[in-house]
Amino acid sequence: MEEVTWGLLLLLTCLPVLKANNIDKNSPFYYDWENLQLGGLVWAGIMRIAGITFALSNKCKCKSDPNDNPFPEKATPLINSGCESHC
């Protein structure tokens, strides 16, 4: 039974390869992968240049007030001495 299963699995994996030799370039599912890859690389290059230009254009400055520090200058201790008598 295992040999039959392996045979069917091999047959099912080989059928698309055998069918791929008959390529219809007018089919709506045919993709020109080289032009698609080239277009993607061009788009990625344009986006990269735009990102670097935006980052270096000084338009995205972080305007923060030095007094708005999220960390207080003196932290309050979590455990105070003499806490045992009040708890």
UniProtKB/TrEMBL annotation:
<dbReference type="InterPro" id="IPR047297">
    <property type="entry name" value="FXYD_motif"/>
</dbReference>
<feature type="signal peptide">
    <location>
        <begin position="1"/>
        <end position="20"/>
    </location>
</feature>
<protein>
    <recommendedName>
        <fullName>FXYD domain-containing ion transport regulator</fullName>
    </recommendedName>
</protein>
<dbReference type="InterPro" id="IPR000272">
    <property type="entry name" value="Ion-transport_regulator_FXYD"/>
</dbReference>
<dbReference type="Pfam" id="PF02038">
    <property type="entry name" value="ATP1G1_PLM_MAT8"/>
</dbReference>
<keyword id="KW-0813">Transport</keyword>
<keyword id="KW-0472">Membrane</keyword>
<dbReference type="InterPro" id="IPR047283">
    <property type="entry name" value="FXYD4"/>
</dbReference>
<comment type="similarity">
    <text>Belongs to the FXYD family.</text>
</comment>
<keyword id="KW-0732">Signal</keyword>
<keyword id="KW-0812">Transmembrane</keyword>
<keyword id="KW-1133">Transmembrane helix</keyword>
<keyword id="KW-0406">Ion transport</keyword>
